[in-house]
């Protein structure tokens, strides 16, 4: 029988990582984990409870109160993020959270909290996880690591179109500023910054459509599954 592997997908914001990860998990009957949703839910909790981002004691106490769960939503056919039993899938995608999440994700205690849970989810393998540090920190021994990139203007357009669906008043400039700010914070932070793992395969999807990207990634996945 074919062995299950771990597929780690990293890259900048709005590169299409989650779309790819979701499609691969479905095709392979693997578990899909969007780790960005976990950092977003933590950021939402901090915002709601006015937790100061520089107060280690308050942060540790707040993390003790946070329970994160993914639950499959039959209607949308994807997993929703639950924070302490509440479905926060919509709210964590709002600009209010996007503007603060990189700062929250740069806090070492937050990363330790999230990474421990992510590693536990991968003990039985058969998982596709997307984020920023999956191939470097969470699963440094993953059988397949993908580093997804795309031209910044293509990423901006995709993100803008996505956000327009829930907020028709959103400005493209605001989306561009937020993307730029997150790219910079995610790749320059001291603790587990976004970087390409040495053994990652680069998938530049600037000129690829979803199907082409999926075909290529699945070809690589099948090779690694056969070799494992
Ligand atoms: O993928 P996303 O845009 O939903 O991620 C939200 C934020 O969380 C992003 O600014 C970077 C951070 N993040 C992280 O630091 N490490 C991860 N593994 C996933 C996301």
Explain what this protein looks like in three dimensions.
By secondary structure, the chain is an alpha/beta fold. It has one domain: 3-Layer(aba) Sandwich (Rossmann fold), CATH 3.40.50. It is built from nine helices and eight strands. The strands form two sheets. It has a five-stranded parallel sheet with strand order 2-6-1-7-8. A three-stranded antiparallel sheet has the order 3-4-5, covered by helices on one side. A hairpin with a 2-residue loop joins β4 and β5. α1 crosses α9, α4 (95-105) runs parallel beside α8 (172-188) and α7 (152-164) packs across α8 (172-188). The longest helix is centred in the C-terminal third of the chain and has 18 residues, at 210-227. The relative contact order is 0.22. The mean pLDDT is 94.
Strand order across the largest sheet = 2-6-1-7-8
What is the H/E string? EHEHHEEEHHEHEHHEH
The total count of strands amounts to 8
**First-to-last CA distance:** 11 Å
Report the mean per-residue pLDDT as an integer. 94
Beta-strand percent range: 15-25%
Largest sheet: 5 strands, parallel
Helix content: 40-55%
By CATH reckoning, the class would read Alpha Beta
Q: Tell the overall outline.
A: globular
The CATH superfamily name is P-loop containing nucleotide triphosphate hydrolases
**Secondary-structure arrangement, i.e. CATH architecture:** 3-Layer(aba) Sandwich
Report the structural category.
Answer: alpha/beta
Count of discrete domains: 1
Looking at the structure, the CATH topology is Rossmann fold
